[in-house]
Amino acid sequence: MAFLDLQRIRAQLEDSDFIQDIRYVEELDSTNAEALRCALGGAGEGTAIIAEAQWAGRGRQGRTWVSPPGRNLYLSLILRPAAWKGHLGLLAFVGGLAVVDVLQDLHNLSAALKWPNDVLLEGQKMAGILVQTVRDPKLGLAAVLGIGVNINMGTPDFPGDLQDRATSVALHLGSPADRSVFAGRLLETLGRRYRTHMSAGPASVIEAWKTRSVTMGRRVVVHGQQGPVCGEAVNITESGFLVLRTEDGHENVVMAGDVDLQ
After folding, report:
1. Which one of 191, 207, 241, 244 is least enclosed by Cβ atoms within 10 Å?
2. What residue ranges in 102-199 does DSSP mark as E strands?
3. In this structure, are residues 188 and 128 in contact, taking their beta carbons and an 8 Å threshold?
């Protein structure tokens, strides 16, 4: 098993001043959980947590994120977006756009974004984003942007129920990818994307996300707590919620849920 190389990760960050610290752990519960703990302990914006493996990796809605050692990228970044007027859920859009950028720049792979937090390659999920927040009376608000990217997973490495729905960079390249280079480039891109949208505001990240989305303009079914909602995806609100237009012309705002494309 080839471990991540911190020196080569940092080499991708020579022209970036956003990433202030990289904390590498061979194995932990989850990078998001560790980042939340670090944020409460005073870690500053631009602190990244990277792990080789997670035993309690999480996706949205408490789902497990399959996190075997030495194959993928499990990364969380601490942000302190006190000055940003956008909804914190839009940070998932920033993360997704950064992953798409890196896939294109490094591997010439054209990925797409599915609301609310999936990165797809040819319709199969290869990365997911999870944003969590924590507030301390003295330190204020911190947001943790967690990203899991399937880098070198083979089809047999996925659980049976995911083998036809999940993919990896290596499966599309036909050979293993360099995880250390990908990690460094992703951190650099995250910092750049985050600063751009911090200064430009919510509309900037929403419009950028729409250009890479497979959700917009499609008929979809969203499975949420209130049951399935069907309609055409016609817009994204300033909070990052999905607007569906039903057959009777009514527009519903959906805050969360799993999307099936029709």
Report:
1. 207
2. 112-114, 118-121, 124-136, 140-149
3. no
Residue 101 to residue 107: CA distance in whole angstroms: 10
**On the CB side of 82, how many CA atoms lie within 13 Å of its CA?**
8
CATH number for the region 6-211 comes to 3.30.930.10
- Sole residue written with tokens 């237009």: 245
Residue 58 clears pLDDT 70, i.e. is over it: no
pLDDT of residue 65: 55
Domain extents in the chain: 6-211, 219-261
Closest by CA to 259, choosing from 242, 247, 246, is 242
- Residues 168 and 99: their CA atoms lie apart, in Å, by 13
For residue 197, the SS3 value is helix
Q: Kindly indicate the confidence band of residue 166, based on its pLDDT and cuts at 50, 70 and 90.
A: very high
Please tell me what DSSP assigns to residue 193.
H
* Dist. CA 54–CA 27, nearest whole Å: 6
For residue 222 the two structure tokens come to 């969203």
Instruction: Write down the CATH number for the domain with range 219-261.
Output: 2.30.30.100
What is the C-alpha to C-alpha distance for residues 219 and 240, in angstroms, rounded to an integer?
18
Helix (H, G, I), strand (E, B) or coil at 146: strand
Asked if residues 145 and 131 have their Cβ atoms less than 8 Å apart, the reply is yes
Pairing verdict, β 118-121 and 21-28: unpaired
Q: What is the residue-averaged pLDDT of the chain?
A: 90
Tokens of 191: 């910092």
Q: Is the pTM of this model over 0.90?
A: yes
